[in-house]
Amino acid sequence: GGSCRSLAARLGPVCLDAASFSRRRLSFGPQFVYTPESADKSLGETSRMNLFQAVTSALDNTLANDPSAVVFGEDVAFGGVFRCTVGLKDKYGKDRVFNTPLSEQGIVGFAIGHAVAGATTVAEIQFGDYIFPAFDQIANEASKYRYRSGNHFNCGSLTVRAPIGAVGHGALYHSQSPEGFFAHLPGIKVVIPRGPIQAKGLLLACINDPDPCFYFEPKILYRSAVEDVPVNGYVLPIGKAEVLIEGSDVTLIGYGTQVHVLREVARLAQSELGVSCELIDMRTILPFDEETVYASVCKTGRCLIAHEAPLTGGFGAELAASVQEHCFLNLEAPVRRVAGHDTPFPHIFENFYLPNQRRCLAAIKDLIGY
Amino acid sequence: MFAVIACGRLVQTDFQQVDANKFTLTIPAADKVNHLVFFLTGQCPLPDGAAAAVYLGWPQPPPSPPEPVWSFIGHLTNEKPSAIFKIARTRPQDHDPNHPFLANHFATGSWTDLTCVQVGISIEPVQTVAGMTPPAGTQADSTPTMVAFSQRMLESLVNYLSSFATTPPGAAESYVPMSAVTSSSAIRANLLLLRGGGGLFVSSRLASSAVLSTRPYKLHKLESGPASEAQVTSDEARKYYRDMATVRRMETAAGNLYKEKAIRGFCHLYSGQEACCVGMEAVLDRNDPVITAYRAHGWTYTRGVPVKAVLSELTGRASGCAKGKGGSMHMYNHNFYGGNGIVGAQVPLGAGIAFAQKYREDKRVCVTLYGDGAANQGQVFEAFNMAKLWDLPCIFVCENNKYGMGTAVERAAASTAYYTRGDYIPGLWVDAMDVITVREATRFAKDWCLSGKGPILLEMETYRYHGHSMSDPGTSYRTREEVQSMRQMRDPIASFRQTLLTAELVAEEELKEIDQSVRKEVDEAVQAAKTNAVPDPKELYTNVYSQPPSGQPNYRIRGIDQFTWSAN
Q1: Which of A236, B211, B431, B534 is found 20 to 30 A from B558 (Cα to Cα)?
Q2: Chain A residue with minimal CA distance to B536?
Q3: What is the ipTM of this complex?
């Protein structure tokens, strides 16, 4: 009706008129173009890999060099539903790469025990949406083991991998981004890569890290992100964010898929608004890189945080609170968050739910015009 | 050891042994052959306890690959060393293209080149073979044709005439008026019957009910099990057939819509498992709550959601049963609690619903379904414990279709006897490819629960023809032959159809009419699902809480930007 027309006026070409949905083919899921990066030359020979192949490569390096290492989860033996473990069982045997029954709580509890006994353990949860039965094990066992035993025991050799994030058609139970829940657990580390080179280096870092790590892979990038990835093992730092684009007016903060959406937002901000944006990829959610974030916001004076997970209590809330605390006198505008709505991840209208380019750009306009 | 004769030709004994217990032979120009005689030559008998199962493999027309499609036609034993089989009707071109389980496999093409048939003989244990059903029309009649024909004619005449019988007032017995006997319509009606025409006549001349046997059950902590025989009326038979055919067709349509990308995301099809939902629903009523997992479209239909609403929910339309907000895995209706995506999560919910029934003293059972994959979830056992501790009227049903996604049951479960895994909860194993077997098991289970004996666990052993979901072809972890052979030998709809025809409960014409009307219904539903209106955009943020949450009349869902809210 009339309200829809006013929406159309403000939004520009995107129209919320219900009738037009049936006529137009709307594209679904996060809207971005993947920009491949290149690895440091010193890391040696590379091979063309997408994100799931980069994960396989990291696991391959691990199984080759660490005799205690095992990889398990649902359906990993044949290669995994996202093909992250293809070929590993054939190469390393079914005692080291094996399937578990459909029991998430069992899988993670079992993995914690195996890690406590000293083995390098990489457990897979098939979709991040299914990790919740295991949440008690993670919250009450994994994160507290070292602390409660006075450093007598720890499950640091544990890494749990899970695919997360919107994919265009995942609906309520195949699209969630649960990193916010895990950011609330001191004692674990939470890492989210943005592409294949990052994925391999960060996963190897997690596996080698002396604390239990939760590694969330943006599933939409498994095939769409392709780069020349070093074939040997290498690590990237955990707990260190990365400035991808330098700018002077607004700091854009994201992680995983959202980094690529924000790249496009930065480009649009420059071309449509003449605004210079600095783009930061957090890479590690917990413990997050305060230094890089505060340095950037103190420089630009404006901060926009974007994530797919719902707004209230999302990780952006922690970032926003910390930024305003440390950069208050440098802020020209309140810290803004553009996030998923406070609803379950929807079956319909996904592209209105996600923090898409238009919503982010609208927030930048508000920041500049404050 | 074996020989075969096609009428008018030399005997063929050139069987090739292709496996330890399998032999094959090719019969050329088999499109001209109507009967085949198989016999043991007497050179050496079959091993004790073994039978020779006879299969025919007709080549498939292009564009299918040239491997033959095998169908079981009968068997030989030492006690029955020879048999005649009619093979004309096993030829694919003679099959009814509207037949439910051939709908997807039948391809049009020229048959003139594909005239050889392969014969396969497999030595298998007698028990296995005894349970297999050959297709209709392959068993030769042993009675002379004239005698059989006359018998039928007399029976139908008696049926017809006795329908006119009346008891005059004060008479001790009933009489048939002479006008019925002498009228020419009597003869005409019977001739029509024998020619198989005239639906109305045919349906009133068939049996109105029949006693059918159920397949054997296995018991766990039960003294006795469900009935081995069941009375089925022709109305019931028609209903079960129609419901199963509708579910099958609806799932096929959903699969096609998915391939056209009208449905996106996840879609788990129920084809092959129809006897489970239809058989159980035959005993339940709409006041018995049901909760299941994500392979839910069949249950959604039997719970009263029309095909149109199911398909619209899949395509995300406002006419969908969850307003388009749930999709494939989240369909609901009165006393149907979904439709659940997280594996196993629905089982404790089912125990809770059963508790509510008991608390309110409703004489109802809650049917809580889960799959073989979910059977290894911890929360399932938590639910079992609570249900047994508190004697909840809960029928736990494990729909065991042998594969949890791509994992065969043996590789996931330390015990695959799912009907025993309730331990202290009595259990029943049910061959869920037969709808009457399922029905009687459900009747037994419902009586059990309602008599205050607490929960019971049913394992429905069934099979799904499609992969786990539309993203799974379903052939990387099982062979095509396995799927084909299930479709041909144990299909719930085809075998029920044959049972009905043999028992003369329903006429073939009626079944054809049902098939056609089902097809029409589903086709119309597909159209609606493709063209109906999408939901209003405000559905994106409605129903998160009750609207608005009490005490906060101005509550707005956070994160929604200003411009979206101005639509309100």
Answers
A1: B534
A2: A18
A3: 0.83
The CATH number for A246's domain is 3.40.50.920
Q: Which residues of B touch A75 (CB under 8 A)?
A: 405-407
Strand residue runs (E) in B409-522: 427-431, 456-461
Which of A99, A311, A352 has the CB atom closest to B537's CB atom? A352
Examine residue A8 and state whether it is found in any structural domain, yes or no: no
Residue A351 has pLDDT above 80, yes or no: yes
Chain A residues with CB inside 8 Å of B539's CB?
348-349
Query: Is A18–B541 a contact, with Cβ atoms under 8 angstroms apart?
Result: no
> Chain A partners of B564 at a C-beta cutoff of 8 Å?
7, 16, 352
**Boundary (domain end) residue, out of B158, B178, B205:** B158
Q: Which residue of A has its CA nearest to B557?
A: A342
H/E stretch holding A191 reads strand A189-191
In A, minimum Cα distance to B558 occurs at: A342
H helical segments located in B390-471? 409-412, 435-448
Whether B34 and B116 map to the same domain: the answer is: yes
Higher pLDDT, A79 or B146: A79
User: Across A209-290, where does the E strand assignment appear?
Assistant: 213-218, 226-230, 242-245, 250-254, 277-281, 284-286
Q: How confident is the prediction for chain B on average, in pLDDT?
A: 85
| Burial track B486-509 (b if 16+ CB lie within 10 A, e otherwise) | bbbbbbbbbbbbbbbbebebbbee
pLDDT higher at B49 or A146: A146
**For residue A121, which phi and psi values (nearest 5 degrees)?**
-120, 125
CA distance B433 to B467: 18
Residues of A labelled as active-site residues: 104, 174
Which residue from B minimizes the CA distance to A24?
Answer: B534
Question: What proportion of chain A, given as a percentage, has pLDDT over 90?
Answer: 89
Element (H or E) spanning B213, and its range?
Answer: strand B209-213
pLDDT of the residue at B64: 61
Partner residue opposite A348 with nearest CB, options B324, B406, B544? B324
Domain that holds residue B514: 213-539
Instruction: Indicate the range of A14-23, A109-118, B4-13 predicted with least confidence.
Output: A14-23
A173 closest CB neighbour out of B342, B534, B558 = B342
> What spatial distance separates the first Cα and last Cα of chain B, rounded to whole Å?
82
Tens digit of each residue's pLDDT (9 = 90 or more) over B150-168: 777 787 677 777 777 777 8
- B182 falls within a domain: no
What is the structure's pLDDT at B116?
77
The pLDDT tens digits for B77-135 are 888 889 888 887 676 654 444 433 333 333 333 333 456 788 888 888 888 787 777 76
The enclosing domain of B344 has a CATH number of 3.40.50.970
Q: Does A349 touch chain B (CB under 8 A)?
A: yes
In chain B, the number of structural domains is 2
Spatial neighbors of A217 by CB under 8 A, at least 6 apart, are A51, A52, A55, A82, A84, A161, A162, A163, A164, A192, A193, A199
User: Over the stretch B503-519, which tens digit does the pLDDT of each residue have?
Assistant: 999 999 999 999 999 99
The type of residue at A4 is C
Structural domain for A223, as ranges: 46-230
Same domain, yes or no, for A175 and A313? no
- Asked if B341 lies within 8 A of A348 by C-beta distance, the reply is no
Q: How many CA atoms lie within 13 A of B61 on its CB side?
A: 12
Pairwise CB contact (< 8 Å): B559 & A6: no
Query: What integer pLDDT is reported at residue B144 of this predicted model?
Result: 61
Kindly list the residues from chain B whose CB atom is less than 8 angstroms away from the CB atom of residue A163. none
Count of domains observed in chain A: 2
How many contacts does A have with B, using Cβ atoms within 8 A? Answer: 135
pTM: 0.73
**What would the pLDDT profile of B280-329 be if each residue is shown by its tens digit?**
999 999 999 999 999 999 999 999 999 999 999 999 899 999 988 888 99
Token pair, residue A243, equals: 């400035």
